[in-house]
Amino acid sequence: MQFDEISDFHRRQRHITTQKCFQDITSTFDSFIDFFDNLEMLISGRNINPFIGRGKVYLLDTQLLRSAMFTLNSIKLCIEYGSISDCNTLMRKLRDDLFFYLYLLEVDNNQVVLFSECESFERVQEHNKQLNYVINWFNNELRNFDFKRNVITYLRKNKLIDQVIRNHNIQSEWDRISQNLNNYVHNNGLSFCVANYEMFSTKKIELILKEVTFKLEYIILVFVTLFILIKPHYIMASDYIEYMEVSMTPPEGCEYWVAPFIQDFVDRHIGSHSIELKKFIQSNIYMDLV
C-alpha cells in the first residue's frame, strides 16, 4: 500500500489539535515565546557585549535569544503534527542555546581579569582559553566543545551559581531531563524513534504533553534563574533609560526597578516552583525584585 503522506500528517494533526491538552500547551508555548520576545526587546542594543580577539571586535547582542524564540515556535509546530521525537530533539537544542548564552555572559563578566594587576597568571590563562572558544564560535569554528564539561562546569565556577544549584536541588532534575532529551537526540531506543509517528491514545497524548510542558518549564525556569544571577542589571525596567532619553531626571532608585514581565515570570514560575529559590535570588542581587 502506498504511503499517503498528506493524509497521514493531517490525520495526526487533527488527532492532536482536537485534544484540550494541546490548547493548554499551545498557550504555554505562546507565553514563553512572548517572554523571550520581551526579553530581547528589553536588552537589545543597550547591553551589547564586546569580545576582542585576533585583532577584531566581536559583538554579542541578543542573537541566541532570538534563535530560542524561533526554536520554541518550531517545537510547537512539531507537537501540532505529533512529531514528539523532533519536539524533544529541538528542546535539547533550545536548552543548549540558552545555556551557551549564559556561558557567553559569564565569560564577559570574567573579562575583568584582563584589566586587573592582582589576578594570577593561571586565571588569566583560563580566561583566555574560554575567550578562544567564544571567538571560535563567532567564526563558526567551535570544535571539541562539550555542553556539560565546558558550559556547566564553567558556570559552576561562579560561586553563586554553584550555590544555587547545590542548595536548591537543581542538579538531579536537570540530569534526568538531560538524559531524557539525549535519548531522543541519539535515538537510544525504539520508543524514541516511533514517538515521531505513532498514533497515540488521548490518555497517552495527555501524558506526553504533560511531560513536554514540565521539561520546557524547568529548562526556562533554571535559565532565567541563572540569567538574573549572572547579569542582574539586564532585568532593569526601561523607565530609567526612557527618562534619560527625554532629558528628564529619573526618579531616585529607578535604576533598580525590575521590568514587569520579569517580575511576573519570577512570581508565576520561580516562586510557584520554590519560594526558597525566589528568596535566594532576591537576597543575592541588587535589583528591587519583590
Label the structural class: mainly alpha
Please, what is the average pLDDT? 93
Strands in their spatial order, largest beta sheet? 1-2
Give start-end ranges of low-pLDDT stretches.
none
Output the radius of gyration: 21 Å
How many helices in DSSP terms? 13
Helicity level: 55-70%
Largest sheet, if any? 2 strands, antiparallel
Shape: globular
Which range does the strand content fall in? Answer: under 5%
Termini separation: 62 Å
Number of strands: 2
Order of helices and strands: HHEEHHHHHHHHHHH
Keyphrases for this structure?
290 residues; mainly alpha; two-stranded antiparallel sheet; 2 strands; 3% strand
Fold blueprint:
Blueprint: H1 5-17, H2 20-43, E1 49-53, E2 56-60, H3 63-80, H4 84-109, H5 121-138, H6 147-155, H7 159-167, H8 170-185, H9 190-194, H10 202-230, H11 239-245, H12 260-273, H13 275-283
Antiparallel strand pairs: 1-2
Helix pairs in contact: 2-3, 2-10, 3-4, 4-6, 4-8, 4-10, 12-13
Explain briefly what this protein structure is.
This protein is mostly helical.
Task: Write structural notes for this entry.
The chain is mainly alpha-helical and 290 residues long. Helices cover 68% and strands 3% of the residues. It has a two-stranded antiparallel ribbon. A hairpin with a 2-residue loop joins strand 1 and strand 2. Helix 2 runs antiparallel to helix 3 and helix 12 crosses helix 13. The longest helix has 29 residues. The mean pLDDT is 93.
